[in-house]
Design goal:
It contains ten helices and eleven strands. The chain is an alpha+beta fold. It has two domains: 7-130, Phosphorylase Kinase, domain 1; 142-282, no CATH class.
């Protein structure tokens, strides 16, 4: 009977579903166990120093690894250990500042040389956690990922100089469509709708920056060819696409960074997270070009 009980317990253990946690490891999605996400590579002595320096509470939980560093959750904060001096210098430029679509940096510093673990990843960055501390990491939807890729591939400089009233610009553009249906009947060469877009943004009384933003987002989301500007109903339906909001969020984040001397050109789907309300937040500004950089303090 004792042996049967042991066998039953063993079979129960084997068949037990192990909870897995989604994490991005070197740009690939991985499913890690509870034990794996609780591992931490630094010594207990350095962990205590980092806790005091960064006001970190609780035990570390592994969040993910990029090509130049790894991130660990401490309650409502994140500690990143990295070799990326560009991200470190960029993070220092916005420490203490807030933007709804860029992670909020608390502290930036250089690790002490006496610690042997991960010697090449000599920088530490502390920033506020995106989302609920007790919830799983949330990555962008497929639709949002397509927008992120499109913005990354875009050569238009307007993404670094985005109008802060983009939603209002779309409303004016929508009104121009409703009030000027004859523009949609224009005959355009080769089916290219750019002349229609240019005329409608002009009728909407948008300035040059606002025009560029509306035309860029429409072109990337919808394209310049097709029947999307053939009728008022179809055009208005297209403007309800959630992707316009994603464009506004990401480009406003890039513009915030640019206004603080950071030109971030390495935008990827793996360095953007999503909050529950579909709010996108850039959480990694590595490989940035930083103007007027300042010295990074030692921890």
């Amino acid at each position: 009977m004792k042996m049967e009980k042991l066998l039953k317990e063993w079979n129960t253990f084997l068949n037990k579903e192990v909870k897995k946690h989604n994490r991005i490891v070197l740009n690939e999605m991985a499913q890690l166990t509870e034990e794996e996400i609780k591992s931490f590579p630094l010594s207990a002595e350095e962990l205590d120093i980092l806790r005091e320096w960064g006001n970190l509470q609780g035990e570390p939980l592994y969040l993910g690894t990029g090509t130049m560093g790894s991130a660990y959750q401490f309650g409502d904060k994140v500690l990143k250990i990295t070799s990326d001096d560009a991200e470190t210098v960029a993070a220092a430029k916005i420490a203490g500042l807030s933007h709804p679509h860029v992670y909020k940096i608390d502290k930036v510093g250089i690790r002490r040389k006496q610690f042997a673990e991960m010697p090449h990843q000599r920088f530490a960055i502390v920033y506020e956690l995106v989302g609920d501390p007790d919830a799983s990491v949330s990555y962008p939807s497929k639709e949002a990922q397509e927008v992120i890729k499109s913005i990354h591939n875009s050569q238009e400089s307007i993404k670094f100089n985005w109008p802060d009233n983009f939603k209002e610009c779309l409303d004016k553009f929508r009104t121009a469509i409703q009030e000027n249906p004859s523009v949609l009947d224009m005959q355009v060469k080769g089916g290219n709708n750019l002349p229609k877009l240019e005329e409608l943004t002009k009728l909407a009384n948008l300035n040059e920056k606002e025009k560029q933003a509306v035309i860029m987002s429409w072109t990337h989301i919808v394209g310049l060819y097709g029947k999307d500007l053939s009728s008022v109903e179809r055009a208005l339906e297209v403007l309800d696409n959630k992707s316009f909001d994603y464009y506004d969020q990401i480009c406003s984040g890039l513009t915030f960074l640019n206004k603080h001397d950071i030109k971030f050109t390495d935008l990827k789907t793996t360095n953007v997270l999503r909050e529950d309300d579909d709010n996108l937040i850039i959480i990694d500004i590595g490989k940035s070009h930083v103007r007027n950089a300042s010295l990074i303090p030692n921890i």
